Structure formats: structure tokens, C-alpha cells
Amino acid sequence: MEIFTTDDQDRIVQAISVAESKTSGEIRLVIDKKLAWPSAIDAAIAYFQKLEMHKTVLKNGVLIYLSTDDHQLAIIGDRGIHTKVGDDFWDDTKEQMIAYFKKGEMAQGLIVGIQHIGEQLNTFFPRRDDDINELPDDIYFGKH
């Protein structure tokens, strides 16, 4: 996707890998050009299911959804993490990210959000010796 350079994409994937290295939680980033659902939250829920994020052992997957052309952002977490952090955490994370987006720093905004989410996952779901990476760390580019 032209909004992110190869370097940007590498930095984002690296942020996901680093965040996940400290937790049993899983973070996925989905980027669409255009929103094909009624809302960004609907898109996030659809991708959460499509990418089988609900199948993590501890129910601690987090999905960040971004529609670049429509300027829509949603963050959702499975019940394991959501019951620990609640709605205010997701809203706060979005606001941090949007502050960077407004300055035209899309990649940095995503990285800051990923780091913030990773910190909370580490707090509630610290990495254990037997943890495995249950989901890919790459960016999922939607077809819309």
C-alpha cells in the first residue's frame, strides 16, 4: 500500500515483534484503503474472525484496523485482554495514535499504538517460557 514505504512496513512489523516478545499476547494490524463495512469497528470484528484471532489460548489477541482513505481507526481486543483494560484503554490508545496521524506520521502513530498495547499485554500476560507466536506479525492488507 503506497501510504507506507517498505521501511515503514519493516518498522511496524518490528514493533509488533518486539511488543510480542514480552508477552503471550498477539497483535495484528489490518490496513484497508477503503472502508467496506458500516464502521471501522465492524471491519475490525470481521477481520478478527477472518484472521482467527479468537483462537489464541489466553484470549489475548488485539487487532488494530485502519482504513487509510476514510481515516477510520478501530482497536479491539479479545475478552482476555479486554476484561483487564476496558474501553478507556482502547480509546486512549486510539487518541495517542491519532495525534501522530494528524501530523502525517502514520507509521509512527501505529508504532506508538503497538508499543502501548504491548505494554499492557506484558502487564497482564507476561511472556512465559512455553509461549509460542500463535499468529503472524506481518501487516495484513485487506482487499478494499
Quick overview:
By secondary structure, the protein is an alpha/beta fold. It has one domain (6-141): Diaminopimelate Epimerase, Chain A, domain 1.
Mean pLDDT: 91
Low-confidence stretches: none
What name does CATH use for the topology? Diaminopimelate Epimerase, Chain A, domain 1
Radius of gyration: 14 Å
What level of helicity do the residues show? 40-55%
By CATH reckoning, the class would read Alpha Beta
Gross geometry: globular
InterPro entries: TPM_dom (IPR007621)
Protein name: TPM domain-containing protein
Pfam family, one: TPM_phosphatase
Can you characterise this structure?
- This protein is α/β, with parallel strands linked by helices and 144 residues long.
- It has a single domain, classed as Diaminopimelate Epimerase, Chain A, domain 1 (Roll).
- The chain is 48% helix and 16% strand.
- A four-stranded mixed sheet has the order 3-2-1-4, with helices on both faces.
- Helix 1 runs parallel beside helix 4 (106-124) and helix 3 (79-102) packs antiparallel against helix 4 (106-124).
- The relative contact order is 0.25.
- The mean pLDDT is 91.
